[in-house]
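Chapter summary example: a protein plus fe (ii) ion.
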Amino acid sequence: MCYINDTVRYMDKIHLEVDKDNRKLVHGIEPANALYENFSRDITYPTEEQMACEAQLSAIGVWEPLSFIIKDDIWKENEKAVKDLWRPFQPKPGISNDRESILLYGAEGSEPTDPCGLAQMARNTGVKPSEISMTHPTSAKDMFTCLIEVFDYFDFGRSFAVRLNRGGHYPPHRDHLLLTRPTIRLIAFLGDSTDKLKWEVEDRRMHVIPNHLYYVDTRKTHSLWSSNHRSTMVVFNVIKNWENVMKILSKLKYFG
Ligand SMILES: [Fe+2]
């Protein structure tokens, strides 16, 4: 007679193996830690343009708002239109973490409901695909009309909407540490999640202006968590080249 243990195991199964609509989760499997000293010089040593891009980006800071106008009333309409497209973002075996995503730019033929996380994409091959191998918009991209000005301005690799529900989090991590990183990270904060969403970069709490797009230096250690539902962002990977770096400078919200 061990009804309690059976119930706990059943609840574990419900929460960790299937999503809220009983679809089987697509777990992310992290490849082994990178041993940078074993990488070939071709992969780690930056070109002149890569160095120029990184040096110029470092002048911006780690967390800077851009001047794009994201209209809250249009986002609220978009949110209703995409409500059936959310899927669990990169669930990991044995970990409860309420994050959901919609793919906006992926590999050719991608669907909005396809897995968005690199570790999910690496589950079969053991290798994370390059951000710049995913430049094809899905049908969801044009449903985010509040971001049309942003979509029209840059060239994108893998990009996706993500929302954190209560308890959803990203533990401390870095994205694309090498100077040869192929993409730059921009993050749009949709709606007002001021009180419920906490972002830290290098252990410092970041201030978020609602409905703004930010340049974020995600090479630095960062983490975030949400104390309530529907803290919604769009994560953009912009192709790193001099033209796009100059475009970011042109769109800074604050000039000297
Ligand atoms: Fe990150």
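Key point: Residues 170, 173, 175, 218, 222 surround fe (ii) ion (CB under 6 Å).
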